[in-house]
Design a protein that fits this description.
Strand content of chain A: 25-35%
Number of helices of chain B: 12
Radius of gyration of chain B: 21 Å
Number of helices of chain A: 10
Distance between the termini of chain A: 55 Å
CATH topology of the largest domain in chain A: Rossmann fold
Number of domains of chain B: 1
Oligomer: heterodimer
CATH class of the largest domain in chain A: Alpha Beta
Strand content of chain B: under 5%
Helix content of chain B: over 70%
Helix content of chain A: 25-40%
Order of helices and strands of chain A: EEEHEEEHHHEHEHEEHEHEEHEH
Largest sheet of chain B: none
Order of helices and strands of chain B: HHHHHHHHHHHH
Structural class of chain B: mainly alpha
CATH superfamily of the largest domain in chain A: P-loop containing nucleotide triphosphate hydrolases
Distance between the termini of chain B: 18 Å
Shape of chain A: elongated
Number of domains of chain A: 2
Number of strands of chain A: 14
Radius of gyration of chain A: 25 Å
Chain lengths: 322, 275
């Protein structure tokens, strides 16, 4: 399978201070391999390095160390950008232009012939629901409409790889749904979509693979479904109104016990304890309503990785001997 | 150290290069002509040229000198204001508003962006100066009830004003790659003022007893843009022809200086990071 994007030891330090003597590492040795035709989600809290990664790949900023390849070509090769689309976070567009004018301008920058430009502008305006506002200057647009126009400009050249930085931001539920459908539509057409988000449900719905960044470091990367399946955290046993004697025997094996009405939910952390729980329940004549492995949700995985990264950072911050 | 960038262009890309510069220039022009401040300045310039008729009519014997002097000075001053007001926003506004993200994520070289912006604003100034020139000749026609061939010598002065404005835009472009719009305006204006006084600066140096001062003023004289060379308004107003060698020398000087300024702007812009 061909790699659409590959980053090798990609690192970025930002310099600051009057003499720019201080530096802060925004991205630390990022190694990613993204296959063509996938929807790849870059997840992380604010300041994790998601936008830094995207702007590095688009050459809006330059790496301190490391390199990247996009569609088999070095990311330094400007020609490869003719095959890419990019939606910046909170996009700012030329507000004196109408969507039609903006898309035409972008088409010119891609060197598209006039006839192709016209047909692409028409298609995208229809596809993104901009038909009624095609002649309205962007300064009169709502945030959601600006976002739609920005997505349209990212697709003007029918790109093979599309970078979307927080594509759902500023959109209402309907708009989010439309963008989700759009991303799935792009995937169906064999496009590679690389998007950053901190909205985990979007990643769960859309992504084949995810990478989790925290404080510039990669915390985990891989097949989303594998990550969720492999990380089975516990087993949940739901019992109907167990007697106090049964509860006394069950409680030591459970990590948590939650009673809701007649039902009691036990969380069993160790898998080998489950037969013992069942044996106690049967012995006391307690009805077992359900028994299910609790898969780690993406949110749990995300929080676990981020907090582990924070702990590691604290440990590293050992004060220097005086 | 940030890594240097390599660019490899296919022959097809080379052909597209000019198209992209043209497209950026056209959109810069389009954006500039939508600036309200531009229209205000043109109206003020035309009013000033109109007022020159009034001043000329009350100046016995020197009416034409007054009209030409005031008319050309108005074109120069308002052209300068337009060049600074719009020139400083050329790049810094794009960075501030982050519209540059959309452009530079396309297969657009940073040099193409800078050259396109420069050409676009130059074209805007050309159009505006043409409008003001038309106003000036209308005023002259009204006052003289007819035009003569030697009235066309004013075109040489207007051409020099255009060269001067092209230099000012180059300075504004360079500073706007480095600094905020307000500081860029201040730097550009200061250099324009100093550039008009360079002959005096050198004269002071030559009159000085200190060899260091003589060398320092000579260095400043040769290094900074000499705007004084472009001012032939008084000569033209007095009916003197502009010598051919001055046309060639000023054109070459402006071209060389503009090349240096735009190249400097490109070098700075190539290193800039947008985050």
């Amino acid at each position: 399978m061909m790699l659409a994007i590959e980053t090798i030891d990609l690192t970025k330090d930002y310099r600051f201070g009057f003499w720019r003597k201080h530096s802060k590492r925004a991205l630390d040795s990022l190694n990613l391999q993204i296959e063509a035709g996938q929807v790849f989600g870059l997840l992380g809290p604010n300041g994790a390095g998601k936008t830094t990664t995207l702007t590095l790949l688009l050459r809006l900023i330059f790496p301190t160390r490391g390199t990247a390849r996009i569609l088999g070509t070095s990311f330094e090769d400007r020609a490869v950008r003719a095959r890419l689309g990019y939606l910046p976070e909170n996009p700012y567009l030329y507000d004196h232009l109408t969507p039609e004018e903006l898309l035409n301008y972008v088409g010119e920058l891609f060197g598209l012939p006039a006839a192709l430009r016209r047909s692409r502008v028409g298609e995208l305006i229809e596809q993104l629901g901009l038909a009624e506002s095609r002649k309205v200057p962007l300064r009169k647009f709502s945030k959601g409409m600006v976002q739609r126009t920005a997505i349209a400009q990212a697709l003007m050249n029918d790109p093979e790889v599309i970078f979307l930085d927080e594509p759902m931001s500023g959109l209402d539920p309907l708009g989010r749904r439309e963008v989700r459908d759009l991303i799935l539509g792009l995937k169906a057409r064999g496009k590679t979509v690389f998007f950053s988000t901190h909205i985990l449900s979007d990643a769960e719905t859309l992504c084949d693979q995810v990478a989790i960044l925290s404080r510039g470091r990669l915390q985990g990367c891989g097949d989303l479904h594998k990550i969720l399946r492999l990380e089975v955290s516990s087993t949940e046993v739901l019992l109907e109104d167990p007697a106090p004697a049964a509860m006394a025997e069950l409680q030591p094996h459970a990590a948590s016990v939650v009673r809701t009405g007649d039902w009691v939910r036990l969380e069993i952390p160790e898998e080998h304890e489950v037969p013992k729980i069942l044996e106690i329940a049967l012995r006391h004549g307690v009805r077992v309503v359900s028994l299910s492995p609790v898969k780690m949700s993406l949110e749990d995985f995300f929080l676990a990785k981020v907090s582990a990264s924070r702990d590691a950072t604290k440990e590293e911050a050992v004060p220097l001997p005086s | 150290m940030p890594q240097r960038r390599k660019q490899s262009l296919s022959p097809h890309e080379r052909v597209n290069e000019m198209t992209r510069i043209g497209s950026i220039a056209f959109h810069t022009f389009k954006e500039s002509v939508r600036e309200r401040v531009l229209y205000n300045l043109i109206v003020f310039a035309l009013l000033m040229i109109g007022a020159a008729i009034l001043f000329a009519s009350i100046s016995v014997g020197v009416d034409q000198i007054i009209l030409v002097n005031l008319g050309l000075t108005s074109i120069s001053v308002f052209g300068l204001l337009m060049a600074i007001f719009i020139g400083i926003g050329l790049v810094s506004k794009e960075i501030e508003r982050k519209t540059v993200y959309v452009i530079l994520s396309k297969p657009v070289a940073r040099a193409e962006f800078i050259v396109g912006k420069y050409v676009g604003l130059l074209f805007t100034l050309l159009v505006n100066t043409s409008i003001m020139t038309a106003g000036f000749y209308l005023a002259l026609l009204y006052q003289k009830r007819g035009l003569e061939w030697h009235d066309l010598t004013a075109l040489a002065a207007i051409y020099f004003i255009l060269l001067e404005l092209a230099l000012v835009v180059g300075l504004a472009l360079l500073f706007s790659c480095l600094s905020t719009p307000i500081l860029s305006a201040v730097y550009t204006f200061c250099l324009f003022v100093i550039g008009n006084l360079l002959s005096d600066v050198r004269w002071f140096g030559e009159e000085s007893a200190s060899a260091v001062l003589r060398k320092a003023t000579a260095l400043v004289y040769y290094l900074l843009p000499n705007f004084g060379n472009f001012n032939v308004i008084t000569q033209v107003a007095h009916g003197e022809a502009v010598p051919g060698y001055l046309l060639v020398a000023n054109s070459c000087y402006a071209l060389l200086y503009i090349t240096v300024l735009v190249s400097g702007a490109i070098l700075i812009f190539e290193e800039r990071e947008f985050r």
